[in-house]
Amino acid sequence: MTTTDYQINPLSQLSPEEIEQIGAEFDAIHDEVFNSLGDKDAEYIRSVIALHRQLALLGRAILLGSRYKPAWLLGTGVLGIAKILENMEIGHNVMHGQWDWMQDPKINSTSWDWDSASTKEAWKHSHNYVHHTFTNIRGKDKDLGYEIMRIDENQPWKPVYLAQPFYNLILAAFFEWGVALHDLDIEAILKGEKSKELMVAEARGMGYKAWRQIAKDYIAFPLLSGPKGFVPTLTANFTANIIRNVWAYAIIFCGHFPDQCYTFSEEETENEGRGGFYLRQLLGSANIEGSPIFHVMAGNLGYQVEHHIFPDMPSSRYAQIAPKVKEICERHKLPYNSGRLGKQFFSVQRKILRFAFPGGKPGKKQGPYVPLEDNAIPRPLVSI
After folding, report:
1. Residue 97 domain-assigned?
2. Which end of the chain is less congested by CB atoms within 10 angstroms, N or C?
3. Do residues 179 and 123 make contact, with C-beta atoms less than 8 angstroms apart?
4. Greatest C-alpha distance within the chain
5. Given pLDDT bands bounded at 50, 70 and 90, which one contains residue 373?
6. Is residue 376 part of a domain?
7. Which of 342, 361, 341 is nearest to 351 (CA)?
8. Is residue 169 part of a domain?
9. Half-sphere exposure of 356 toward its Cβ, with a 13 Å CA cutoff?
10. Across-strand partners of 4?
11. How many domains does the chain have?
12. Burial of 235 (0-12, 13-18, 19+ CB in 10 A)
């Protein structure tokens, strides 16, 4: 896979008939998977939920001895892993409706909630609906820079963006709270697009979730550790939350904001059909390469391309369909954005720094996907 200078949107090189043909191919992949879902899939998500609960219990038990440094380190690490699993592979995916087909009332998008500051109602509206419907459409996808960062050359520069390399670090450490505030959509309130009553109701929900986390992580469990273990357990729980937040931040930013991802104007998507929708998800997302364990810890969002094409598909199936998505890209000379975590993370951080200042040129884009085993050089797209 190679990169080239800034290119025109690959969609413009496809005819309407080709775009709809690609859409039909993606529909066929979706239907094939959903027609094959069964006990093995249900066993997978139930086993991950059981593993999370066991890890959380183990971490809490170890932290009863948190006044001893080895117990603090081990308990914090185990609890951090448990929180990552709960947030990424379980909460995010269950609330996407990926497991609703099981008809299990306990593992269902209508009933599931998670250990995060966002209420499930606000998050599902801002994420499931707004972000996944209007992915990377400038002015409509509020997750494009989370309304506080300039990460695209088409975004007008403002002096406040000079500080984004600094508040980017704060956002990473306290990502769940940044997302929760983002979900409130204060801008919509200021524009009169959202009632104050709804905002107050959502703020109360966020406050309730904040209190639950404070009571659980910073009062109840520290008290169980006794007088000498209270502060060490409190700091361990705080650190575990930071671990979870930084990991979630890294995975999500690396899946959405690397240089190779395209953004779109409202005019470009005005008459978009099903095929165009699929291709916008393909071009606006980025994958992260890693081991099977890495993908589980990432909520299988290392397959962000596949997730954006099929957000309702069980995450455990993304690895299975990835070769089929690549084959479509190869055949239709489309890019398939994928790279190691370090590469994608560096690309994102470079972009955040570059666009903090006025101007800024778009980064390089990948050429059409070519399998590595072919040892072929991808044909670059036409440059502007």
Report:
1. yes
2. C
3. yes
4. 70
5. low
6. no
7. 361
8. yes
9. 14
10. 365
11. 1
12. middle
Q: Which strand (E) or helix (H) includes residue 340? A: strand 338-340
Please give the structure tokens belonging to residue 170: 């704060």
Mean pLDDT, range 170-182, rounded to an integer = 93
Looking at residue 365, what is its pLDDT?
Answer: 81
What residue type is 92 in one-letter code? H
Q: pLDDT tens digits for 51-70?
A: 999 999 999 999 999 999 99
In one-letter notation, the amino acid at residue 239 is: T
**Beta carbons within 8 Å of 328's beta carbon, 6+ residues apart:** 22, 25, 26, 334
Structure tokens at 201: 């109701």
Amino acid code (one letter) for 183: D
**Averaged pLDDT score across all residues of the chain:** 91
Contacts of 353 (CB under 8 A, 6+ apart): 165
Overall size of the chain counted in residues: 384
- Angle formed at CA 337 by CA 332 and CA 266, multiple of 5 degrees: 80
Q: Is residue 206 part of a domain?
A: yes
Distance, in Å, from the CA atom of 171 to the CA atom of 168, rounded to the nearest integer, reads 5
d(CA 223, CA 212): 15
Q: For position 185, what pLDDT does the model report?
A: 79
Distance of CA 309 to the CA centre of its chain: 13
What's the confidence (pLDDT) of residue 13? 84
* Domain residue limits at 229: 3-366
Which tens digits make up the pLDDT trace of 87-107? 999 999 999 999 999 999 999
Q: Where are the alpha helices (DSSP H) in 310-367?
A: 318-331, 341-354
Which uninterrupted H or E stretch holds 281? Answer: helix 274-283
CA distance 183 to 122: 6
- Between CA 336 and CA 334 the distance in angstroms is 7
Q: Is the pTM of this model over 0.85?
A: yes
Q: Which residue pairs, CB below 8 angstroms and at least 24 apart, start in 375-381?
A: 377/2, 378/1, 378/2, 379/333, 380/2, 380/4, 380/7, 381/4, 381/7, 381/8, 381/10, 381/13, 381/335
Specify the amino acid at residue 88: M
- Please determine, for residue 248, whether its predicted confidence score (pLDDT) is greater than 60: yes
| pLDDT tens figures, 19-48 | 999 999 999 999 999 999 999 999 999 999
What distance in Å separates the CA atoms of residue 265 and residue 101, rounded to the nearest whole number? 35
The identity of residue 169, as a single letter, is L
